[in-house]
Amino acid sequence: MPAKCKERERIASSGNPDVPSLPVGAIRGYLCFRCFGPATNILKCGGCKRAYYCSKACQKLDWGLIHKNHCKIFKTINEVEEQQYQSTRTWKEYSEYLLQTVRIIRNAAPRDEALRYTVQAQAYCSSCRRTAVQLTNRNIALKRCPTCRLVFTCSECPSSSTTHPASVCATYKNYGEIENFRTAFFEDTGKASPITCTQFPRNTRKLLSECGNWHDYYVHVSDKPQIKGVIRPDFGGLVEGSTAGEVEGRRMRMFLLCATDNLSMPLTVVSALEDIACDAENINIHLVGATGRELVAMGNFEEILHLIPSVRSLHITAIGPSLMAGSDSPLIPKTSVDCCPACKADGRTRSIAVYKGLYHDYAKIAEFEKPDLVVLFNSGWADGDDSVTDWAPTIEFLIGEDVPALFTTYNRQEAEHEEERMKAFGARFLVGVGENRWRGLMPTPEFIDEEYGVWYNNAFRYVVKGKEG
Ligand SMILES: [Zn+2]
Ligand SMILES: [Zn+2]
Ligand SMILES: [Zn+2]
Ligand SMILES: [Zn+2]
Ligand SMILES: [Zn+2]
To answer: How far, rounded to the nearest angstrom, does the alpha carbon of residue 36 sit from its chain's CA centroid?
Structure first.
């Protein structure tokens, strides 16, 4: 087992973002911090009392690779917890306390997202909101919800069954299964996220607007009719009494559910192309604020060719400050990308270019061509620290160019805030803020904004073009 764990570190340190992150199941004490297999409470790090292991071997390996540095910072956090000890806290008090510790971690290790997440996602009593470490220090036991295994009640508070809603319990349980699937998938394939496209390009166009959900898409537009009557339309589980093999059905549900996380990008684009009635044969798309995530999903963008038979070529430019630059310029020029044999035989082409920098700067270079669609996936442009300095000039440029621009966000609140800011810029909305039918189905628990909050990739969307009036 430890050999595979080392492999994960090697892939991560090469800059590939497609490695599974530390599972919430590990942070909350039932999976091993190193191999992500079942952990034991006995093999807990004695220093910080926050890292759990399945074996001495995993503990030793983790110490050398990561935990030695993390342990020190965790101990500092534990001291802060003791200084701020209260016998009971409201959710608001607890979330303010978390924000404060996040600031401490940002100062100590600015780039270490994993470390920050480990503290944000820490186990606590859902009733008095004392943390696992605070309770351990007082020899008070923490009881785990037996169903989702991610929510706790301490032995001094009333029983766990009433503390979190059944819907939260079900979402967390589903999330736990996804984490296990991802770990197994990575060990089998070396990739964290399953990528799947419709295998053969469609001969006729079928509009996504005629599909109600992902299940419809897989059955009627893509090539997975076999899931009908096996996987429930909401992907929440298998159809009861289905004749398909239980193990195969479960595996297929997990694979297709996790695949939506990346497929969400091309499908959200195709859906926006339908909305703006784009019938171009040569499509030019700018992915603005792109990160490694978009590049990992790039293989999936062939789906645009496979769903729209009239498209002959697809050119995508990824633009963002965290991307790779060319050898002597911020631009890695247009390079062709392999298509599937059927597309190739038909003479269809795909290409990609990458620009390291901000969009309004990219727009000044000679290679800039006005795109058919600009796409900003979960950019959070209105809320980040860089909202005024970096994003405002980009948004102003976009509106001035009068190009259609598709935006997505993780939640409604963020989308509505962007809408308000967009209106202040005078933007004209082609599609107002609404739920995205092609959001990823993989939940990501969120631990600061809202108790039991969950995010989905590209959950909300809107499309703007030019100025109002
Ligand atoms: Zn282990
Ligand atoms: Zn430790
Ligand atoms: Zn309690
Ligand atoms: Zn539960
Ligand atoms: Zn193809």
So the answer is: 19
Tell me the C-alpha distance between 442 and 260, whole Å.
7
Domains delineated in the chain: 2-177 (no CATH), 261-467 (3.40.50)
State the Cα–Cα distance between residues 423 and 397, nearest whole angstrom. 15
Q: What is the pLDDT of residues 192-228, one digit of tens each?
A: 888 889 999 999 999 999 999 999 999 999 999 999 9
Ranges of residues in the chain whose predicted pLDDT is under 70 = 1-3, 160-162, 243-244
- How buried is 312 (Cβ within 10 angstroms: 0-12 exposed, 13-18 middle, 19+ buried)? middle
User: What distance in angstroms lies between residue 377's CA and the mean position of ligand 4's atoms?
Assistant: 31
- Cα 305 to averaged position of ligand 5 atoms, centre (Å): 6
Q: What is the pLDDT of residues 27-55, one digit of tens each?
A: 999 999 999 999 987 799 999 999 999 99
Ligand nearest to the CA of 151: 4
Ion ligand 2: residues, Cβ under 5 Å: 45, 47-48, 51, 71
Question: Which ligand has an atom closest to residue 303 CA?
Answer: 5
pLDDT per residue as tens digits for the range 164-193? 999 999 999 999 999 999 999 998 888 888
What is the CA(150)–ligand 4 centre distance, in A? 6
Q: What is the chain's Cα-based Rg? A: 24
Sign of CA dihedral 233, 230, 210, 344: positive
pLDDT tens-digit map of 343-353: 999 999 999 99
If you count them, how many residues does the chain have?
A: 469
Q: Name residue, tokens 């002597």.
A: 328
